[in-house]
Amino acid sequence: MDMEIGVVCFSFSLSAHEPMAYVRLIAPFRHLGVRVINGLQNGVDIEELIDQGDIVILQREFPVRLDMYLRIMESAQRKGKPVLLEIDDLLFFLPEDHPDRRNHYYAPALLPMLQA
């Protein structure tokens, strides 16, 4: 009997219409036969979502939602679920002239991402 693997993804843009989520999470996991569970389902408790998956994935700056991030980490640790931070940009070291650095777009998320 095959056992389906599931990943619970906490992302601000987990949609097949979002290129970042599709290319980096949805398509690769689908190709591998891994079920992707949206961690931001309205009305569904974090505990219940984490129970549904084998791995928890936080995408990019998601840890900026510090209260939710801490609940996710506590629940995942208690349940023995590994947690991964998925990020492919070096947001901690953006060039000084980069627009996102100049307007401090990621500034509130940097420390939470570093902790993650």
Structure description:
By secondary structure, this protein is an alpha/beta fold. It has helices at 19-32, 46-52, 66-79, 99-102, 107-115, and strands spanning 6-10, 35-38, 55-59, 83-86. It has a 4-stranded parallel beta sheet, sandwiched between helices. It starts with 5 loop residues before the first strand and ends with a helix.
Question: Topology of this structure?
Answer:
Layout: E1 6-10, H1 19-32, E2 35-38, H2 46-52, E3 55-59, H3 66-79, E4 83-86, H4 99-102, H5 107-115
Parallel strand pairs: 1-2, 1-3, 3-4
Helix pairs in contact: 2-3
Number of helices: 5
Overall average pLDDT: 86
Number of strands: 4
Q: How helical, in percent, are the residues?
A: 40-55%
Quaternary class: single chain
Major beta sheet summary? 4 strands, parallel
Class by SSE composition: alpha/beta
Strand percentage lies at: 15-25%
Low-confidence parts lasting 5 or more residues at pLDDT below 50? none
Distance between the termini: 35 Å
Radius of gyration: 15 Å
Large-scale geometry: globular
Question: Numbering strands along the chain, what is their spatial order in the largest sheet?
Answer: 2-1-3-4
Task: Give the SSE order as H and E letters.
Answer: EHEHEHEHH
What's the short story on this structure?
By secondary structure, this protein is an alpha/beta fold. The protein contains five helices and four strands; from the N terminus they run βαβαβαβαα. The protein has helices spanning 19-32, 46-52, 66-79, 99-102, 107-115; strands at 6-10, 35-38, 55-59, 83-86.
